[in-house]
Amino acid sequence: MSAKVKKVVLAYSGGLDTSVILKWLQTAYGAEVVTFTADLGQGGEIEPARKKAEMLGIKPQNIFVEDVREEFVRDYVFPMFRANALYEGVYLLGTSIARPLIAKKQIEIAEKVGADAVAHGATGKGNDQVRFELGYYALKPDVKVIAPWREWDLTSRTKLIEFAEAHQIPIAKDKRGEAPFSVDANLLHSSSEGKVLEDPVVEPESIVYQRTIDPQDAPDKPTTIEVGFEKGDAVSINGKTLSPATLLTELNELGRANGIGRLDLVENRFVGMKSRGVYETPGGTILIAAHRAMESITLDRGAAHLKDELMPRYAELIYNGFWFSPEREMLQALIDKSQEFVTGVVKLKLYKGNVIVTGRSSPYSLYSQDLVTFEDDKGAYDQKDAQGFIKLNALRLRTLASRKRKAQK
Hints:
By secondary structure, the protein is an alpha/beta fold. It has helices spanning 16-29, 47-55, 69-82, 99-113, 128-139, 157-166, 173-176, 244-257, 282-298, 301-320, 326-338, 369-372, 385-408, and strands spanning 7-11, 32-39, 63-67, 117-119, 144-146, 182-185, 190-193, 223-230, 233-237, 240-241, 262-268, 274-280, 344-351, 354-361. The protein has three domains: 7-68 and 96-178, HUPs (Rossmann fold, 3-Layer(aba) Sandwich); 184-299 and 341-361, Argininosuccinate synthetase, chain A, domain 2; 373-404, no CATH class. It is elongated and about 85 Å long.
């Protein structure tokens, strides 16, 4: 604890940890606390957080509860999916992409209420502390950041509960025991980490999975759907136009019912350690398969391959918390330019954990049946041209081979 803090905006879930943080900020810093609770589609009710904040002495005008689902999907998830972003080849970045929005809202509230500090409940071992704080500093460079897990001495579950009891903070019965694993969720995904999941050789128990049924228990008959796109963003399912959050919600339900989107991953955290996480991204898994299918007929080869080359860098920037960095914004401009003609419809079958593309069409398709046909192409392509094309591409290989032969003599 260093600088004096008058007013702090806390990212508040209403759970045990952030409720303890709320009271700790009042006692350790003597600061006026403002709470911000975001409805990101994590499931469950959000309003109880408001009542709990009031019960802990927060003035009604200092309690902010906001439904940000549409903004989350429209301005964060969809731009990321235009890039087909996957961290380390598989992770759809569900936790990572939510943090910059929360940070942005906290800073907006701080400006509104005249707060001089912001606080979060991320631990000192994880990625989220980096993501929150890079967001804060990018938007308000002089803001004071309080990260209780890096400051206090409440280093165990027992100490947290003792602090809560000493300050009359209600503790749900299911929070008194040791939680089997930690869960974070939003409209894009849920992630489970820690405790029973820490040993990467041990298969997760069925209770870990909360958003998808077991693929083995999914229907024996495939579910057929059509996803419509405009300029790289999904806009409809089966011909029905939907808002971004509503569309992702429906894809989540379709994915859940067909056991789609499970991932058991050992990843490299930005802070340097490896961690094991179990992720469920049902709607996102469908969406990325559909988007790539749409791009397959609307993107030029050079543009498509360049996007694939840049994607790991873009995904890493989001994972590491650099959403508000100039390099991410530069890459986003390139990606968005590539999506001008990514419009059309993709047909898919969802079956026992699989997303199977069965068709794609676009008014801007670059696919030419006349060029690719094995039948008479009526002069659309002169096969004799391939001979010169191959010889020119082989020129340097032939030159290298000649030198190698001379060297071997």
